[in-house]
Amino acid sequence: MTKRSSGQDSAAAMEALYPFLYPGTAPDLDAVLAEVRASTVAKAREITELRQAICARDAGRLAACAQQMAARFAAGGRLLVFGNGGSATDAQQLATLFLDPGPGERALPAFCLANDTAVVTALCNDVGVEVVFARQVAAFGQPSDIAIGLSTSGNSENLLRALDEAARHGMLTVGIAGYDGGKMAELDSLDYLFVAPSSSVHRIQEAQTTVYHALWELTVASLPGAGTGTGTGWRG
Q: Which whole-number Å values give the CA distances from 223 to 25, 65, 176, 231, in the listed order?
């Protein structure tokens, strides 16, 4: 018996997964489309149910958090938001929502602490990745500011340290996590924690996007003058 090479095994596995990419195969297109359709429907159902569960549990807390965020912004506060990997991208989007909400909307000061490559790499190289956000919070944070940390696991040490540092500065602290909240759920320094209770990173991040979009909309709606027409075009 001839032993198959690892390369042959990999090629066979790839062809089994994607037979339509290889000549000489005749995949059942209808079966493939039916499988894709069923998978898409199942994923859509999962995220819809997860979002509904979060809304049922946290709607009141989201509104209360947004009111406190609006009060901080009205007092001259700023938002410092941070995360790692995909959560860093979410942090960028959240900061952008406040900074550039669109024509006629209120722009609010918000900064993603993962954006400055020089600062992030200097801190990681010279001190350690665990302080990459806490050092920035210590340098920039003021009592009127807001800190939001995003994590799928809730266990990222650099987020936990940054949220603790923000609390020491008197900032409003908000965590957005997945699974069961991880170590974020154990922090005494958090004012608000919003958890997407799922074990799927994909569903967690999709639900977190909904959470922070809702938080942004509720915050803007809670600002002084919101809905009266007096704030249109204001740039804070």
A: 61, 13, 22, 9
Answer whether residue 233 is part of any domain: no
Residue 162: what are its φ and ψ, rounded to 5°? -65, -40
Residue 133: which domain range?
29-222
- How many other CB atoms are found less than 10 A from the CB of residue 65? 23
Q: Cα–Cα distance between 214 and 59 in angstroms, integer?
A: 9
Q: What is the pLDDT of residues 9-66, one digit of tens each?
A: 777 776 666 666 666 666 677 777 888 888 888 888 888 999 999 999 999 999 999 9
Q: Please write the tens of the pLDDT for every residue from 87-132.
A: 999 999 999 999 998 888 889 999 999 999 999 999 999 999 999 9
Measured CA distances, 141 to 12, 21, 24, 65, 115 (Å): 55, 53, 63, 19, 16
- Report angle CA 110, 116, 118 to the nearest 5 degrees: 160
Do 111 and 139 form a contact (C-beta atoms < 8 A)? no
Look up residue 176 and give its two tokens.
């957005």
Q: Does 19 map to a domain?
A: no
Q: If residue 175 lies in a helix (H) or strand (E), which one and from where to where?
A: strand 172-178
For residue 219, the model assigns a pLDDT of: 97
Q: Which helix (H) or strand (E) holds 73?
A: helix 29-74
| 228 part of a folded domain | no
- Name the helix (H) or strand (E) containing 211: helix 201-222
Predicted TM-score of the model (pTM): 0.82
Task: Point out which residues pair with 107 in neighbouring strands.
Answer: 235
- CATH number, domain with residue 129: 3.40.50.10490
